[in-house]
Amino acid sequence: MKPKVFIARPVPKEIEDYIAEYCEVETWSSTETIPRSELLKAVQSVEGLLITGGRIDEELLEHAPHLKIVSNISVGYNNFDLEAMKRRGVIGTHTPYVLDDSVADLVLGLMLSCARRIPELDQYVKQGQWQRGDDEVLFGLDVHHATLGIIGMGRIGEAIAKRARFGFDMDVIYTNRSRKFEAEQALGVRYQPMEDLLKQSDFIVLMTPLTPETTRLIGKEQFSLMKDSAIFINVSRGQNVDEQALIEALASGQIRAAGLDVFENEPVAADSPLLKMPQVVTLPHIGSATAKTRMDMARVAAENLVKGVKGETPPYIVKELS
Ligand code: DGY
Fold this sequence. Notes:
Distance between the termini: 27 Å
Strand content: 5-15%
CATH class of the largest domain: Alpha Beta
Number of helices: 12
Mean pLDDT: 98
Shape: globular
CATH superfamily of the largest domain: NAD(P)-binding Rossmann-like Domain
Bound molecules: (2R)-2,3-dihydroxypropanoic acid
Largest sheet: 7 strands, parallel
CATH architecture of the largest domain: 3-Layer(aba) Sandwich
Number of domains: 2
Order of helices and strands: EHEHEHEHEHHEHEHEHEHEHEEH
């Protein structure tokens, strides 16, 4: 008998077909996020769950006595209650590597968008405000040769550093739990303690996973150390930042601009002050959202799932559970 799995979000047909070769599959095929109550019902008899972002906690595990593996279609796994999963011997997997370059590309896009005010000036032109003779009113900041500070030098941090160093001749500094000597050698990046990084950087890119230690890592105190010309970019998780402190830092001119792909609550509330600020570029959490990358992520997640329910070792078990 094939093991039962639940696919909690739509995936490409070929991915579903691949899983169905090895498993009995049930799917949630609506593009609306599956309601929690439906998810709790759906996991009752399954051994495997394929999901993005739904909370895997004590309550869900209680409803899923046969569950062996939760396969996330994402690199982030802050939706996992790692302790609860460990207690019940449930494996959790994710999809590293395949999205690094797409996310890094987007970070550079946000840096350029904020520095050269691309979305704001696009609106300026489209709304007919462009006058012959406009000059200083259109000025932005240079990206090339500026100092980039990366907080969280993992694989994606390194992909950003590579683009910044070799594409834009930037001076790249970083902070991280541990020194990255290989990256320092290969990319010519320099380690700095957080406080120094915040003071020196023209661009600050937050790229840490969301953990209890990184929750609200950047708040009032950190913004107060930044240059008033600093551009802050977050493509990690919204909860890594104290969003109210960010709003205040932007509104008071403590920092110049922000590029945000992620928010404390998603989708961000339509009345958030961030959406009214021309110096803030906002995106709907699209770090990995290219057709190829999303397909690669789904494929890796499906392989993790199938291996997990077959009792084999999936390639990308999250490190805390391996
Ligand atoms: C991830 O994979 O965790 C990203 O946030 C998706 O864009």
